[in-house]
Design brief:
Structural class: alpha/beta
Distance between the termini: 52 Å
Strand content: 5-15%
Order of helices and strands: EHEHEEHHEHHHHE
Number of helices: 8
Number of strands: 6
Length: about 220
């Protein structure tokens, strides 16, 4: 196996998704912090590796992959001992893919990024009520996705759970998950928080992002 290097920053949900997956696969890797606010991701050296200049980025034996969903699917295909995290069965994989696309397009882009970019890069300090409402709408869907299942796609953990928990855990400071309104989602989040090394892999970084939001937001309008 070649040397694995993960480039990232702790508050980033996609980076934490990768860390959860690497840990689940029992893979050793080097972790390199990238200071986004200082522009370390826009250096010539970094952009030669990743023209999109994003984190996370994975280096595997001199080859570079970015975008967390691509990274984690690659890791499972190449290094997993079985297909539990990303099933080979066409239907089961389609369900996992749907949840992954939902996380990417609705939860991360539609909720987190739409709030974070104006706050951290445009010096905006107010967040519209509609953006908070969008978070609750995402929660509604996730509550329905769970149904009677233990995890997002059935009785066992998949990449979908790691992806979604990285984002959902980052939103609870903006939109609390009340047990009475979201009993299934609340139980799932608690269950996820009990996986080995959760706090160091995801919980601490999620709290960092929550604190960053709290420090910047002056009003919900």
């Amino acid at each position: 196996m070649g040397k694995l290097v993960l480039y990232g920053v702790e508050p980033s949900p996609p980076v934490r998704f990768c860390k959860l997956t690497l840990n689940a696969l029992g893979l050793q890797y080097e972790y390199k912090l990238v200071n986004l606010l200082a522009g370390e991701n826009r250096t010539k050296e970094y952009m030669l590796k990743n023209p999109q200049h994003t984190v996370p980025m994975l280096e595997d034996d001199g080859k570079f992959i970015w975008e967390s969903h691509a990274i984690c699917a690659y890791l499972v295909r190449k290094y997993a001992k079985d297909d539990t995290l990303y099933p080979k069965d066409y239907f089961k994989r389609a369900v996992v893919d749907q949840r992954l696309h939902f996380e990417s397009g609705v939860v991360f882009q539609g909720c987190i990024r739409n709030i974070a970019l104006p706050l951290f890069y445009q010096n905006v300090t107010e967040v519209s009520r509609s953006k908070i409402d969008a978070i609750f709408e995402a929660y509604d869907f996730l509550e329905n996705f769970l149904g009677t299942q233990t995890y997002m796609c059935g009785p066992t953990l998949t990449l979908a759970d790691y992806s979604l928990v990285s984002s959902v855990s980052s939103l609870v400071g903006l939109a609390a998950i009340e047990e009475q309104r979201y009993p299934k989602l609340s139980s799932w989040l608690k269950r996820m928080s009990e996986i080995p090394d959760y706090q160091s892999l995801n919980g601490n970084g999620a709290q960092m992002l929550i604190d960053m939001f709290t420090d910047k937001i002056t009003k919900i309008v």
